[in-house]
Structures are given as C-alpha cells and as structure tokens.
Write a structure and sequence with these properties.
Blueprint: E1 9-15, H1 16-20, E2 25-26, H2 38-55, E3 71-81, E4 84-89, H3 91-107, E5 122-125, E6 128-131, H4 139-146, H5 158-173, H6 183-193, E7 194-201, H7 204-214, H8 223-233, H9 238-257, H10 264-275, H11 290-304, H12 314-340, H13 342-348, H14 351-358, H15 364-371, H16 378-401, H17 408-422, H18 427-443, H19 461-478, H20 485-489, E8 497-501, H21 517-524, E9 530-534, H22 535-541, H23 546-553, H24 558-561, H25 572-581, H26 593-610, H27 615-618
Parallel strand pairs: 2-4, 3-7
Antiparallel strand pairs: 1-7, 3-4, 5-6, 8-9
Helix pairs in contact: 2-5, 3-5, 8-11, 9-12, 10-11, 10-15, 12-13, 12-14, 13-14, 14-16, 15-16, 15-17, 16-18
Length: 622
C-alpha cells in the first residue's frame, strides 16, 4: 500500500530566471506530446502582458521593475534522476515559455537595450548548443526559431508541428501595446517577477504520487462548479434546485459532446457579450475592469455584480439558468460546431463563423452573443449571427491586406465598443451600425486597395493561405464545382494544399526585368504571383520555369487553371462568372512583371466581390 505521507520532496518558489538558468529539463518517452493550442497561448500572453502593464509606467527606470507585482504561473513537478530533471507535470507551460523567450530574444536583436536571456533558452559546451528544454526531436525547430529561420514542419512529430504553429501564434498575439521602449522592462519582469513552485521528487513513483494527489478531482472545484453552486444556493425549494441542476449538467454535457473541451470559454464569451459594462484602458497601470475580471474569475464576477445581472430575488436566479443560460449555451455550441466543421457550418448557414475561426479570431463569440436575445425567433437569431460573423469576415480581411493586426489584444477595445453599441439590438439597428464601421474603415483607407501592394512574408503565411483558399473555393462554388473550403485550408485534409510561387526561386530567369536578386525576391512574394497546389505537386514542379509549370496548372484547381488559355474554352460557367462580376481573368502564356501586376489587380477584384459589404443586406430579407 502506497503511503503518500512518506514522499520525499523539495519544493521551492523560483523565478523564471532561477528555474531555467543552467538547468536542463527532459521528458520520458511515455510523456504526451506538446499539445497546447492557440487559445492557451493567447490567454497566457494576454495574462502576462496585462499583469505587466498594471505596474509599468513609461517614466520608470529599469530598476523599478524589482517592485512590480509578481505573477504566479503554478507548480511544476519534476523527477530527479542521475542529475537530470524529468518533467512530470508542467511540460506545456515550460515549452511555451521557452518559445516566448525565443521570440523576445529575436525582438531585441536590433535593440540598443538588450537583456541577457539566451542562457534561459540554451547553453553551449565545446561549441555545441543544447536547449534547456532538452528533447531530441525538438532541437532542430528550436534552433531554427532561435535563428529566426523558416522550418518546414511537414512530416515532423505532432509536437514539432505544434511548436511551429504556437510560435506563429506568439508572433501574432504579442500585443501592439508592448512598445519597443517597454521591451527590456517586460523581459526583466518576465524573468525576475514571474514565479513557479518547482516540486522535485527523487523517483518517478514519488513524482507521480504528488501529481495524482494535486490533481485529485474530488479536492477541487472548477469556476463552473462554483458558479453553479452560487446560483443554485439562491433558489427556493429542493425540487427546483434539482431540476435546474439537471438542466445545467445536461447542457454542459451537450457542450462536451460537441467537442468543446473547455466549458469556461462559453461562460467568458456569454458574460462578456451580454453583461460586461467596462474594460481596462490601454494606459499602463490601469486596473482590471469587467472585461478582464470575467476572464480571470467569472464565477466571482457574477457574485460581485449580481445587481448588474438583475439577480435580486430567487425568481431572477431561476430565470438566469432556465432562460438565459439555456438559450446562450445552445447558441454557443452551434457557433463552436460551425467553427470546427465546415460541413456543419454550411448546412447551418454559418460559413462566416467557420472562416473567422480559421483566421483564429476568438472575439467573434462574445460579439455575436451580445446581439442575441431569448425573445428572438430562430430565424432572427440566425440572421444576427450571419450579419455579425459576415461583418467580422470583412473586417479581418480588410485589416489584413493593409498589414494591420487583428489580434485579440489589439482589437479588444474596438470589439468592446461594438458590443456596447449592438447588445440585444434589433437586426436593422445592428446592420446599420456595422455599415457605419465599414464606412469608417473606408475613410481610414482600410479598403481592398491595400491588395495592390500586398505580399507574402514569414509572419503572414497562414492568412495568405486563408485568402487563397477562399479565392479557390469561391470560384469553384460559383461555377458549380463540388468542393469545400476545408479542402484547401485544412492541414487535416487528405490532400494538403500549400502556397505555390508562380515564379520559381531562380533569379537568373528574370534578369531581363530585374537588376538584382534583392529586387526580384520581394516581387516574387507579391500576392498576384501565388496560388495553391497540393503539396506533392508543389514540390515536384516548384523549380521549373513557368512555361513548364503552366502545363501542370491546367490539371489543378480553378484558380491555378485560370492561368492557362484552355480554362476559358468550353467552360460556360466560368466565363459567365467572369462576365457577371466584371472580373479581369485572362490567360498568361508567359509570366512577366506585367502579368504578375495584372494578376495582383485581379486578386483585388476578387476581394471586392467575395468580401462585399452588400452581404449584410441579405440578412434583412425575410
């Protein structure tokens, strides 16, 4: 019989610098892969940045950081064997923290005020570099990221693929609020004021005993459990408590059946969308408000703000569960199913929700939910969802082609203001307001004219792929071809599509139009010179001249086929589509600068058709 009281451990609170300086962490073969998703990384970064900005002032000297409020990142459990530490619990956080440190180190390479953090990432011995997260199959990608180089994750382990994707997320979600001047302050704070408790056991058996004890399900309540307990405790009568408890449990089960693992996301989106009244300002040192408090502890926020929620008497609590909770959790489940499955989204008329999710825009959920009311018919509910999601689809792509961020941290202020303006409004009122936002974007120059200068670079590859997938899918759908957006966008599709440069990376073939390779390479990355091809095709024909490539393009998707003259022969649906929208499609027997420029203009026209603001009018038709 295992006696937990005899476990020998060493538990110490350590800063990030103390935890990672001169120490290697590894995992055993039976440990799970690195599995954190976009949501986990986004929430961690937002949490860290928000805590830092509550203390930081631009007038501070760096030594002031020593007095900033600390942030606790939880405990990690390690087993010490033969002088090496094996992670039992904490791999996800330590790996993500390493990726954050790599990004911060890359950001400060051009800065005059550098903070020494390379030793927290790796060490060198006899000229060989080894990373402090010392896991053999991850070394190459960490090396590439540290050197700010591209690394192809295809055919790599799940962990390596996920590390590449999460590093892209870190680049995207590192907030615009974090100025270049604040960078050394933030690095100082992250390394000196962010703390862990490192629990070291001296055998695997002891380490797992600790792990099991700390994660005993019977000893801890989730925020959802505590919210339910608070609401039910304010009801009168055991029968109604039992009825509403069963309703609560059944609805959360349906959420999990829909593949939604973290039920807290629903509560955060619902409460933000329907009830949040305030948001923290962007100036350093400001206190958290409703928007932030709901994320950090939504169960406490409901209790503290019960008057705002109208929770005064027992009937109010019953209505809150039986009517509000019941309605909004069902709508949220539909939104998340649409986000995850294009087939489901298409059947429900919720394709825009899927597109926004593909672009990683999680703030669509509180914004959409803010407009809904249990009093709405299902038809009105669906139209509101489509109107808001369709607007966001336009907003995201317009911002993107003008090289402007759409990260949650950068746009949350806007989204909060929109929520306050359209919360539970009628459909015509909502659409009028959304049009006014698009008009403001027109005045600010955030239109599809930005496509004229748009190009692919290392940080926007995912979004460029999304736009090309939309072009390809919409063209094929418009001409009656049976197809799917996920066929072109999803990494899980049977045939994975990749971005194809129409110009091969061969400057010698273009010396007649470019004086140097430095001129050629940026032009090669312009949007007009890109299509999507299946991965194998992309690799086998990638270095061939255009005159050879085009013979293969005619066998591929319609966007690729459109470069070839045969795409316009005996293809009435395609030629009719071109004519209906006035699109300047044309074949290209050769592909010179003028051809790429013409294609770039065509892509702007496609944007103006696919992301037309007129789609909002469709939802007003009954």
């Amino acid at each position: 019989m295992n006696n937990k009281s005899t476990v020998r451990t060493d538990a110490r609170t350590k800063s990030v610098r103390e935890l990672l300086s001169g120490k290697k962490y590894s995992i055993d073969y039976y440990q799970r892969e690195y599995k954190w998703g976009t949501r986990h990384v986004r929430e961690l970064l937002e949490d860290l940045q928000n805590h830092f900005l509550q203390s930081y002032q631009p007038s501070h000297q760096r030594e002031a950081v020593e007095g900033y409020a600390h942030y606790f990142l939880g405990s990690i459990i390690v087993a010490s064997r033969n002088g090496q530490s094996f992670i039992i619990d904490g791999q996800q956080r330590l790996t993500t923290l390493t990726l954050v440190l790599i990004h911060l180190n890359n950001l400060q390479k051009q800065s005059e005020s550098k903070v020494e953090i390379s030793t927290l990432i790796y060490s060198e011995k006899f000229g060989t570099r080894s990373f402090n997260i010392d896991i053999a199959d991850r070394t190459q990608i960490l090396e590439a990221l540290h050197n700010d180089e591209t690394f192809e994750t295809e055919d790599q382990s799940d962990s390596v693929q996920n590390i590449g994707a999460r590093y892209d997320d870190i680049i995207e979600f590192y907030s615009d609020n974090m100025s270049e001047e604040s960078l050394p302050f933030f690095i100082d704070w992250l390394t000196e004021c962010v703390d862990f408790v490192e629990i070291t056991a001296f055998s695997d058996e002891e380490a797992y005993t600790i792990f099991e004890t700390m994660n005993d399900r019977g000893l801890s309540l989730t925020p959802t459990d505590m919210l339910k307990g608070y609401l039910l405790s304010n009801l009168s009568g055991d029968a109604i408590r039992q009825h509403l408890n069963e309703l609560w449990i059944n609805q959360l089960r349906k959420l999990r059946d829909a593949g939604i693992e973290d039920e807290s996301d629903f509560f955060k989106s619902w409460l933000r969308g329907q009830y949040a009244q305030t948001i923290r300002g962007s100036r350093p040192g400001e206190a958290n408000k409703d928007w932030e408090k709901i994320v950090s502890a939504f169960h406490k926020w409901v209790r503290d703000e019960k008057k705002v929620l109208g929770l005064l008497e027992p009937p109010d609590f019953r209505d809150f569960i039986e009517r509000e909770f019941h309605f909004f959790i069902r709508q949220y489940a539909r939104l998340r199913q649409a986000a995850d499955s294009f087939d489901f989204a298409k059947k429900q008329g919720l394709e825009y929700v899927h597109y926004n999710a593909n672009n990683g825009y999680t703030l669509q959920y509180p914004l959409i939910l803010s407009t809904l009311s249990p009093d709405d018919s299902q038809e009105v509910t669906d139209k509101k969802i489509r109107a808001v999601a369709g607007f966001l689809d336009i907003f995201i792509i317009r911002r993107f082609v003008n090289f402007k961020t759409t990260s949650s941290n950068a746009t949350k202020g806007r989204v909060f203001n929109w929520i306050m303006a359209i919360r539970r409004k009628t459909l015509p009122e909502i659409i009028d307001y959304l049009y006014s936002i698009l008009d403001e974007m027109d005045e600010q120059g955030e239109t599809f004219h930005g496509m004229q200068e748009f190009y692919l670079h290392q940080q926007n590859k995912k979004r460029v792929h999304h736009i090309l997938a939309r072009f390809t899918y919409e063209l094929e759908t418009g001409t009656g071809i049976e197809t799917s957006f996920d066929k072109y966008s999803s990494t899980k599709a049977k045939t994975r599509f990749e971005i194809e440069h129409i110009w091969s990376n061969n400057f010698e073939r273009h010396k007649d139009e470019f004086d140097s390779e430095m001129q050629f390479l940026p032009y090669r990355n312009r949007m007009g010179g890109l299509i999507l091809l299946p991965r194998g095709t992309n690799q086998s024909h990638g270095n061939q001249p255009y005159e050879v490539k085009i013979r293969h393009y005619i066998k591929e998707n319609l966007l690729a086929q459109s470069l070839h003259k045969d795409a316009y022969v005996r293809n009435p649906n395609f030629t009719k589509l071109i004519s209906s929208y006035g699109l300047s499609f044309q074949p290209h027997e050769q592909f010179k600068i003028a051809d790429l420029d013409a294609r770039q203009m065509l892509y702007q026209e496609l944007c103006e058709v696919i992301w037309s603001a007129k789609r909002l009018d469709d939802e007003l038709q009954f």
